[in-house]
Structure formats: structure tokens, C-alpha cells
């Protein structure tokens, strides 16, 4: 597999998941068959995992509550942080789980419908896990940019420009 071509295809799809194999082939000067085969291989090997839309829920009129939860844990003998991370990412509310450097070990991003749902997730699902020593929850107040997409729609400055 041509690593350079693979990287270009992945970069294009990462930027715009709606690109067709036809368009990618034209953009890269390759045949449609070559691109379709490469994309199939990337999907089969788990390199290309998902095609994703980034939704501005606020503009859609739907309220979502996002929270980032820092988790301090005691690593498990022989498993480190991996076993606990696997348990945490199985919960449907969880969008992402990261192993972190610094004061906390894991960072968990969740998205739910209400503030109360965040509290229930932390108190009933996350905090009771055996290795969890402590948590700190941060609520997302406003999203300005997500997955490289600017969500903030700054109002146009309507003032007249005054020049001397």
C-alpha cells in the first residue's frame, strides 16, 4: 500500500467525510478503482473507523450538555489504566476517554440531555468504579470550535469605519 497515497486519502476524508471516491481520485490523479480499494482496505483494517458529521446542536434548537470529567485513579496491577478506561468508554454517555499527564489520570468527555444527567453519570456510574479515587467535573458553557470546525458565529461589526 502506498503510504503517501494512504495519508492523502485519510487527510481528505478527515477534512470532509462526504468526499466520494470519484472526487478523491480526481483530486489525487488516481483511478476510482484504486481509491475505492484503498478505502475498503482502510475500513477493513480499522484505520478508517467512522464517517462523522459535526452538528451545531444549538443552531438545531436542541439542548445538549457537554462535560469534561477529570478522573484520578489507582492503576490496576498488570493492567495500568487500560482496564478502567475500557470500562468507562462502554457507557453510552461517553464521547471520548484520554489518558492524561498531570494531576489527573483520565479525561472523560460526555454529552447528555440535562445537567442532572451529568450528576447521575458521575455519582452512579463513574465514581463507584473500584479504581476511581476522585473526579472533577467541568461543564462546557459554549463551544467555539469542535473537530476543527468553527461553531461560533460572531456578529458582524455594524459600526462605520471612520478615517481621519
UniProtKB/TrEMBL annotation:
Signal sequence annotation: none
InterPro entries linked: Dimeric_a/b-barrel, HTH-Siroheme_Decarb, Tscrpt_reg_AsnC-like, Tscrpt_reg_AsnC/Lrp_C, WH-like_DNA-bd_sf, WH_DNA-bd_sf
Domain Transcription regulator AsnC/Lrp ligand binding: 69-142
The name this protein goes by in its record: Lrp/AsnC family transcriptional regulator
SUPFAM superfamilies per UniProt: Dimeric alpha+beta barrel, Winged helix' DNA-binding domain
Pfam family, any one: AsnC_trans_reg
Taxonomic lineage of the native organism: Bacteria, Bacillati, Bacillota, Bacilli, Bacillales
Amino acid at each position: 500500500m502506498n503510504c503517501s497515497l494512504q495519508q492523502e486519502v485519510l487527510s481528505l476524508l478527515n477534512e470532509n467525510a462526504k468526499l466520494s471516491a470519484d472526487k478523491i481520485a480526481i483530486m489525487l490523479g488516481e483511478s476510482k478503482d484504486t481509491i475505492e480499494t484503498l478505502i475498503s482496505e482502510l475500513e477493513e483494517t480499522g484505520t478508517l473507523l467512522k464517517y462523522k458529521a459535526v452538528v451545531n446542536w444549538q443552531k438545531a434548537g436542541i439542548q445538549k450538555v457537554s462535560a469534561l470529567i477529570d478522573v484520578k485513579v489507582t492503576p490496576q496491577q498488570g493492567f495500568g489504566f487500560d482496564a478502567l478506561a475500557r470500562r468507562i468508554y462502554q457507557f453510552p454517555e461517553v464521547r471520548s476517554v484520554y489518558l492524561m499527564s498531570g494531576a489527573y489520570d483520565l479525561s472523560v468527555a460526555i454529552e447528555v440531555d440535562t445537567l442532572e444527567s451529568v450528576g447521575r453519570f458521575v455519582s452512579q456510574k463513574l465514581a463507584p468504579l473500584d479504581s476511581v479515587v476522585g473526579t472533577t467535573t467541568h461543564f462546557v458553557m459554549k463551544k467555539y470550535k469542535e473537530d476543527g470546525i468553527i461553531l461560533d458565529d460572531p456578529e458582524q461589526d455594524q459600526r462605520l469605519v471612520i478615517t481621519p
